Amino acid sequence: MKKLNLFEKFAVFGGVGSTLIINPWFQLDPINIPKMVLVVTTAAFLAPKVFLSINYISRLEKLAISASLLFVISLTFAIFQSEILLTQQIWGTWGRSTGLATYIAFITIFLAFLFMSNVLFRMKTRLIFERLGYVVSGYAIMQWAELDPVEWSQKALVSTLGNINFMSSLVGLASISYVSRVLFERNAFYTKFFYLSMIALNLFLILGSKSIQGIGLLLAGTVLSGSFYLRDRKSIRASGLFLFSSSALGLLGLLGTAAIGPLRFLRQETVIYRIDYWKAAVRMTMDNPWSGVGLDSYGDFYRFYRDEAAISRTGPQRVTNTAHNIFLDIGSGAGVVALLSFILLFCVALYVTLSALSKNSFDDDSIFWSAVFFGFIVFCLISINQIGVGIWGFIAMGLVIGTARTSKGAREESKTQMSESVTRKSSALFSGKAKKIHSTPAKFQPERTVLIAAQLMCGLMVLVFAGQQAHVDASIHKAIRNRDLDAAYKISFSSSAQDRQREITFTKLEEAGRQEDAFKLAQRTIRLNDRNWQAWVFIISSEVSSEEEKKKAALKLLELDPKNSLVRQELRPLLP
User: CB 3.0 to 4.6 Å from 296: which of 34, 93, 265, 356, for a disulfide?
Assistant: First the structure.
């Protein structure tokens, strides 16, 4: 079977690495920053090849590329319109790392997989993704058995994703492949038993994590897989009826988790909280329709846009820095043009999927990737665009749109060609003529050398800039761990440092009795981002602050959280 070339290998293993990479030993943020550095470096390496591939495209691919370009342009426009610091918008807020650089990387990887989408590549990428699922599940089992070699801040089934919801989602997506193989492949009993065992294991992990996200993604992918199965075995009418009724039931179930409709007994408190976050995101988008509030800056504005119900539901201390809905995150962060262009990408992939369903033209691997794409839609509606999970959504979307060039017949033809090739080689071997078979020496290709040089240059350049974020984070982590507050203080004044890193540092300085230094760093934080809640709270509580500075801080806190009556009551003595 044909092997993946260097470009294809780098693309696939960039996705695998972005899911698996962690650095709990040297990073303050051991999950998101390493993933961000790897994903943007991977995208930079792929970018020259993607640029050269734009000449060979179909109409649907032109639409996808146009939507991608409009999306990136809208994001870029948004970061210059927001009052939030450019560094945060480019690299993303600490603990998320989903800023402009990450989204450009996602789009680049999406286009790379779109252009590489052929029968063999889809097949091999699926096999690699399945093995990735084994690793993620295996690590989660180690955590369940309390054999985790890493001492995390909390014991939970998070695997390499840092959060139970993201682990649940990833193993849910991996389980879609096992379901698809049971449905479509004629395997021996022990092979089917293995896949069923993996499904059972992953369901155990999902239930053990107490996160139902993985079940939602698995059900979405299973419904689409089942629709293709019925289309192939029964009729398009049976397939359509199954897809429609299952989708309607799924929608009722989702509404039920929000205590709406006939299935309200499925009520989930976390979903109720998400509705509060979604409402705030809608208000941000409506107030800032053309540019949003700034990329990855939802948390800086959440207190201002939340309603009184969100405050009273569990108390004013419940805040978030993301809308827990990727579409709303993009709309609130970058405006309606970015949101509509992003939705258009999904519409193109959805059109390809439904068109293939009506014609019954997808091969088994394409059905799997379209099922992953369906699961990703659910993920986008209820979750955060975590890099280790989100990258596979963009990969799936690229592979689905790329299948418009190929068909079920193409796969059969490819299998026939591979079989004939093996037969020829076997015949030559047993006839004693194998020694005459020589591989043709590869000719020097200057254009290929130039391409690889351009890829390496782009990759290294981006690695230097993205690596600076990781370096600052690691340096502050090292300084605080070694109780070298002088070093932490100095690094926190760097333009590459982020708000959360400064907050940790001025808190540590205060605990060490260095009130003056802590106060200066809090002021520095406010100068860079005057919406930083923790810095203003510190100004009020600091012994170094003057009465005038405390009054100014009190007024600012009321401005940032205007509907919070508890804050107003506590700050009343400081108000003019």
Answer: 93
